[in-house]
């Protein structure tokens, strides 16, 4: 039933995959990085080929035009009309969207209206949507929300212990994020655990540039580390994760460079995490390279990063009252052998240990020792496939 594009627009990047549906064959995929900066990097992969180029891409609208031209240049399509569906990852759905939704101009306005719930993401997601509405007005356009999978959280998990009116009148609650990824890897886990999802208790760790963990019981999210916005929870590439909220007014009072709560929130979102502590980079590979050259800040950044993840894993053992498996996914979760070893072997009291022979680059599946009570799984995430499937469901 035609070709479907899955779009994952980040604050400075745009990832995409082109599928033949309903066969779910990946025809091509690509990445446009450094949007809005000099020398944007463009990668297109198709049929064993990789094309890379560097040009300046100023906006997400330009990125979409570039991607569509590349599809023609590399003969992945002859005509734009071959693309009958476009699915967009949208990080925050707030109280407005509990499931994937057909995009109309009203839906687009609503997505923009809740940008406060994902300030780094929703504005970029909306730009991507607008660009495609202009280029492919006939295609089935669907928004797939990161928050949807977490709508099953029990009230004790999603409510904050603040006066009730802030929930009832202002919708202040935990929404979580990365839901598509937590859902996908938890479903994939059944292949390695030989039990139906209804009988499983899982702790999923999505560790990429953004990081979040979830406690999943019987296939439903029962807790997750991100909160009202994706700033909450563990430390990330540029985000602080949890800090004592009293620090915010204290920073404004004492640092003459900070004038408002918004200034501090920007700092916590974009200048903190691995970047803020290492003073080197938000990218884990750069941090580790500096650490190996003896850089103390980089070593501290790494230590904090591992510590925060361990503490959330421990919390979720309590939330679930035990677990069948801990799952690692996303850039660092899938590729970071050392991170997995440091996280798991530092808390082996919980009933698991990494098998060094299995914990290798490119490994997939269980990497725990044979006598581990709790399995440790590496499962590559595939948010784009879930998005393409949701688009397909609307085409029918
Ligand atoms: N081999 C590796 N070892 C450690 N970290 C890695 C490796 N490959 C990628 N990463 C890290 O993965 C992170 C990016 O993850 P990714 O899931 O692509 O993030 P996002 O989707 O949020 O852009 C970066 O910190 C990068 O350094
Ligand atoms: C929600 C979020 O943090 O997403 P990402 O990891 O893509 O930045
Ligand atoms: Mg991601």
Automatic annotation (TrEMBL):
**Which residues participate in substrate binding?**
89
Primary place of residence? cytoplasm
Q: Which residues bind ATP?
A: 15, 206-210, 283-285, 331-335
- Give the positions the UniProt entry annotates as the active site: 146 (proton donor/acceptor)
Cofactor(s) required for function per UniProt: Mg(2+); Mn(2+)
Q: Bound how, and how many: what does the cofactor note say? A: Mg(2+). Can also accept Mn(2+).
What keywords sit in the KW lines? Answer: ATP-binding, Cytoplasm, Kinase, Magnesium, Metal-binding, Nucleotide-binding, Transferase
Give the protein name, as stated in the record. Answer: Acetate kinase
This protein's species is Lactococcus nasutitermitis
